[in-house]
Design goal:
There is one protein chain. The protein has about 300 residues and is an alpha+beta fold. The protein has 10 helices and 8 strands. The protein has helices at about 15-20, 120-130, 150-165, 175-190, 205-220, 230-235, 240-250, 255-270, 280-285, 290-300, and strands spanning about 5-10, 25-30, 40-45, 50-65, 70-85, 85-90, 95-100, 105-120. Strands 1, 2, 3, 4, 5, 6, 7 and 8 form an 8-stranded antiparallel β-sheet that branches. α2 packs across α4 and α3 packs antiparallel against α4. It starts with a strand and ends in an 11-residue tail after the last helix.
């Protein structure tokens, strides 16, 4: 795994902001006269395969340029309007894809934006696994998502990447590898590939391979905040194919397997530490609330077992 690079800086000088954008292998120029209220804050972390950047850009400004990498952008505050290859749109709530060699023109105001940069080599590597095609070179017909549902899913992945950056979790090379895989699969699923959308072969042998890779990933990373999407990425499969693989092997979904694994880990902790609190177990094993954990645990292992209270 490549060495981690981290940048955290702020400026009110457009030329210095241009230099910070180059840290993400982008060639951008902010307007030479963006106004006295212009400000630029950036935090980036990543390696040669994946970089995550969180930007807060104050004032009313314009910029233009391009990236050497694929970049998925999610806007979470402010206003941003982009133009690429004659297509124009406002991006709040809908991610957009910037492709290498395609110019991006943007007009923003008081913007909070997260960019996820994926190296072309990394995207190609993941595409070859996902589509079982060693010759594939991913190319896209549009910066817009295929549909709203996929766009929302991609935006959630971008949010997860930003949280990993803010928390420092991205510093772990294993986490970074899993995250880059999940994001690359998300890009392939979300944005319109040139030509016909490819389908992964659904043979019994490929389902067995998907199941093995996904369960190995859960075994290795269960203590981290992994999701079914992460399992699919680690297995090099779409979520549809992931569920099909699990149902063919176990009769239940991948989500059910992940939840059962977390409950089993919590049960093992309780066996070792009889006095441990439900709140601690819920937080440790990724349940949204103590009450939700208790109900799931009681359903799996018996009401009130080890808790001293009855389920309600």
């Amino acid at each position: 795994m490549d060495d981690l690079r981290r940048v955290r800086s702020s400026t009110a000088d457009p030329e210095e902001a241009d230099a910070l954008m180059r840290e993400a292998q982008g060639r951008f120029a902010f307007s030479r006269d963006p106004g006295a209220d212009f400000s630029f804050r950036a935090e980036l972390a990543g390696d040669d395969g994946l970089t995550v950047g969180v930007y807060r850009i104050g004032g009313d400004w314009v910029s233009d340029g391009e990236f050497d990498q694929f970049s998925v952008s999610g806007v979470f505050a402010g206003d941003y309007r982009w133009e690429m290859d004659g297509e124009r749109d406002s991006s709040y709530g809908v991610p957009f894809l910037t492709r290498p060699g395609h110019d991006l023109y943007g007009h923003g105001e008081n913007l909070s934006i997260v960019n996820v940069y994926i190296a072309p080599e990394r995207l190609r590597e993941v595409a070859r696994v996902v589509y079982a095609d060693d010759a594939i070179v991913p190319a896209f017909d549009s910066p817009r998502p295929v549909d709203l549902r996929r766009g929302r899913y991609m935006l959630q992945l971008v949010q997860v990447a930003a949280e990993f950056l803010r928390s420092g979790t991205i510093d772990d090379a294993r986490v970074r590898a899993g995250l880059s895989h999940a994001l690359a699969v998300g890009v392939l699923e979300c944005f319109p590939l040139t030509g016909e959308r490819r389908a992964r072969p659904a043979t019994a042998r490929s389902q067995l391979s998907i199941h093995r890779r996904a369960t190995r990933f859960v075994d290795d990373y269960l203590s981290l905040p992994i999701s079914v999407g992460d399992m699919a990425a680690a297995a090099g499969a779409s979520q549809y194919d992931l569920d099909a693989a699990f149902r063919s092997r176990t009769g239940s979904s991948a989500a059910h397997y992940l939840r059962s694994a977390r409950l089993a880990a919590a049960h093992a902790d309780r066996t070792r530490e009889a006095a441990i609190d439900d709140a601690v177990l819920a937080h440790r094993w990724g349940f949204a609330s103590e009450d939700r954990f208790r109900r799931a645990y009681d359903s799996a292992y018996g009401a009130g077992r080890g808790t001293g209270v009855e389920s309600f």
